[in-house]
Design a protein that fits this description.
CATH class of the largest domain: Alpha Beta
Largest sheet: 7 strands, parallel
Distance between the termini: 48 Å
Strand order of the largest sheet: 3-2-1-4-5-6-7
CATH superfamily of the largest domain: Glycogen Phosphorylase B
Number of strands: 16
Strand content: 15-25%
Number of domains: 2
Number of helices: 21
Structural class: alpha/beta
Oligomer: single chain
CATH topology of the largest domain: Rossmann fold
Length: 454
């Protein structure tokens, strides 16, 4: 069964008799008299935006009951045991009947939707019940239905929110342009989340041993299209000495085949990564720092990992899940590529990188770049990044780079590897950008929290 088929199966199974399951859990709950804050997140990314608000509310108002709902199976499955929530559910489908029943069951005093969540029936019911509902980390673009001539019914949805906390001035301007005045620009709560993670990051000894004193690229949340480009570049690096040796042997008459068959025939995915002068001398700088690669696939099921391993072929690799025993250090030192085939540690892995590649840019869109940027890591990603403000900002500032092809990836990777001054400048841009944008969580909680704890 494919990834999307599995997700569809989970989506369907998770909603079978869902309201009955929620009713049973809530009826057995011992905290029915507590005030409830309901957070709704589409998936994992939105949960990471909600998380710093959840943590601060739990810290300040420990008596509140916290309910979290997810729309997607990936978010629910990954965070269904999140310890700071009292109850975690799938969101029942957005019908009038479901909305009325769900809201009756959880009886929220305060509701927070994250980023793009605009469920008409839930918002309408909450509005009728007089429950304050907020959008946090919202971001809006001109092409969305709210701002089209035919989007009147969508605009009406926005007026059901008590207040909208948005990421940027452009979003606020668009909203005010259609008459939505209850809006505040306060940034993205993910900055607070990644900053906090960086401050208290726990070491991962295996990754630390693997990297050693080498330069290291951490390729995070990668898909097959990303992995093909990254591995092709790494193969150029890995075989550079082998190609140099073959050129040297050719020059001494040891081989008779044409030079191009050595450069391209035996290594067809390689282009010239070596210094060749007019006399066809070829060299590899023996003083350059060693370069290693960490790949953290977005999907870590066994079929996907096997495809990645097949892509690596002759490049020595080690799987994180198979590291154990007294010989772990020896295995790590001999490997050139570390495959992280476990979930939940990517944000901690980034701290060991010299620069990062963020996956998804050759598909639906890039994944979270802030988890890398907070460590002062230059970031590289594919062409589909325009929906993400932080990616646009860092590209303009010179801390992030979008690539559309293998040649473009080779160019920026080689520059980041060979030019330490350039790498340091990019690093400073990224770290400074994150530091400048923290504070949204505190502002939101101060704005929406009750005057006193129940």
């Amino acid at each position: 069964m494919g990834i999307f088929s599995r997700k569809a199966a989970l989506f369907y199974a998770g909603r079978q008799s869902l309201l009955s399951l929620i009713e049973d859990e809530m009826s057995y709950s011992q905290d029915s008299d507590r005030e409830t804050v309901w957070f709704h997140c589409a998936s994992v990314g939105e949960f990471e935006q909600a998380r710093p608000i959840i943590e601060l509310i739990r810290e300040r108002f420990p008596l509140y009951r916290i309910v979290i709902t997810f729309f997607s199976p990936s978010g629910y499955e990954l965070r269904k045991n999140y310890p700071l929530a009292d109850h975690i559910f799938y969101l029942p489908m957005d019908t009038k009947k479901n909305a009325a029943k769900f809201i009756e069951l959880i009886n929220p005093s305060l509701v927070i939707f994250v980023k793009y969540e605009f469920w008409r029936n839930y918002l309408t019911r909450l509005n009728k019940c007089g429950v304050p509902v907020y959008l946090v980390s919202g971001i809006f673009r001109q092409g969305q239905p709210f701002f089209r001539w035919w989007g009147g019914s969508f605009r009406n949805i926005l007026n059901l929110f008590t207040h909208l906390f948005v990421q940027d001035e452009n979003s606020a301007s668009l909203l005010r342009g259609i008459g939505v005045e209850r809006v505040t620009v306060c940034g993205d709560t993910r900055f607070d989340r990644v900053h906090a993670l960086a401050q208290k990051a726990v070491k991962i000894s295996s990754v630390e041993i693997f990297c050693g004193s080498s330069l290291c690229c951490v390729a995070g949340s990668t898909w097959p299209a990303d992995e093909e480009l990254i591995v092709a570049h790494y193969r150029r690096y890995f075989h550079r000495e082998k190609i140099a040796k073959r050129y040297s042997e050719l020059k001494r008459g040891k081989h008779r085949q044409p030079k191009d068959s050595i450069r391209y025939g035996h290594f067809p995915e390689l282009d010239a990564n070596l210094s060749v002068d007019s006399h066809e001398n070829i060299s590899v700088d023996s003083h350059e720092p060693k370069f290693k690669l960490i790949i953290v696939p977005h999907e870590v099921d066994e079929n996907q990992i096997k495809k990645l391993i097949a892509l690596l072929r002759d490049i020595p690799y080690v799987r994180y899940s198979e590291l154990e025993g007294n010989h772990k250090g020896e295995v790590l030192s001999e490997a050139s590529v570390l495959i992280i085939d476990s979930v939940g540690i990517l944000s901690r892995v980034y701290r060991y990188g010299s620069f990062a590649y963020i996956g998804g840019g050759f598909g639906a869109g890039i994944h979270n770049i802030l988890e890398a940027a907070t460590y002062g890591m230059p970031v590289v990603f594919g062409p589909k990044f325009r929906k993400f403000k932080e990616a646009r900002d860092l590209t303009e500032l010179g801390g992030a780079f979008s690539v559309k092809s293998k040649d473009e990836l080779v160019e920026i990777f080689d520059k980041l590897l060979s030019d330490s001054t350039f790498r340091d400048e990019c690093s400073s841009v990224c770290a400074g950008y994150v530091a400048k944008n923290i504070g949204a969580t505190e502002y939101i909680v101060n704005s929406i929290a009750p005057a006193k704890q129940p």
